[in-house]
Design goal:
This protein has 207 residues and is an alpha/beta fold. The protein has one domain (17-191): 3-Layer(aba) Sandwich (Rossmann fold). It is built from nine helices and five strands. Helix 3 (55-68) runs parallel beside helix 4 (88-97) and helix 8 crosses helix 9 (181-191).
Length: 207
């Protein structure tokens, strides 16, 4: 094989870094968490974040971006909270119709943060949730210190998986507490070839 052929082969087999478009409600917590995850594991991913307001608006933005720039992104996710939003069902329907997965946390993304430190099986108000997070991470507001949550990542993945299984068994899918943030984290790590400690989060889906 000539040097020219070898060069062509290397170029043809060169791995292209996956590009993720994350459409999220907040512009600090979720963005910083996923960016820190990428940097810590040196994951060659490119994130593009678009903040918005409300689950339905987020899904509509994601659908619009998918139609306009379908070739720009390998994967599009919507990350949002339940809070008191009344349009969660409509957002799910539209996301499902456009094959856009959603990482929904009930009551909010802070639950995913908390699962890095402890189990949470009972209903919890978002204000109480914030206080409990502050007990584990003094000074916690919107930012999640990497050195605080990283040691508990494996347990957070397992706890979120167990919550989802319990809610399915109790026919309370998406109830408080629940989160699908683990599915997004698992997909990102697997797409980048990062170790997942043998954990599986189930099939990624739009619920």
């Amino acid at each position: 094989m000539s040097k020219r052929d070898q060069l062509k082969r290397r170029r043809a087999t060169k791995q292209v870094n996956p590009t993720y478009l994350i459409v999220c409600e907040g512009d600090v917590t979720e963005k910083n968490y996923l960016t820190d995850l990428r940097c810590h594991y040196r994951i060659p991913l490119t994130f593009r974040f678009i903040s918005g307001c409300g689950p339905l608006t987020l899904v509509q933005k994601a659908v619009e971006e998918k139609r306009k720039r379908v070739r720009d992104f390998d994967r599009i996710w919507v990350v949002c909270d339940v809070d008191e939003h009344p349009n969660i069902p409509a957002a799910k329907v539209q996301a499902r119709a456009n094959s856009i997965p959603m990482a929904i946390s009930n009551p909010c993304f802070d639950l995913w943060a908390l699962l890095h430190f402890q189990d949470q099986n009972a209903y919890i108000d978002r204000k109480v949730l914030r206080v409990v997070c502050q007990q584990h991470m003094p000074g916690y507001a919107k930012n999640l210190p990497l050195d605080k949550w990283l040691p508990g990542l494996t347990m957070a993945l397992e706890r979120a998986k167990q919550l989802r299984a319990r809610n399915q068994q109790n026919e309370t899918v998406g109830g408080n507490p629940s989160t699908d943030a683990d599915l997004l984290v698992l997909e990102i790590r697997e797409a980048a070839g990062a170790p997942v400690s043998g954990l599986t989060g189930g099939t990624t889906s739009v619920r």
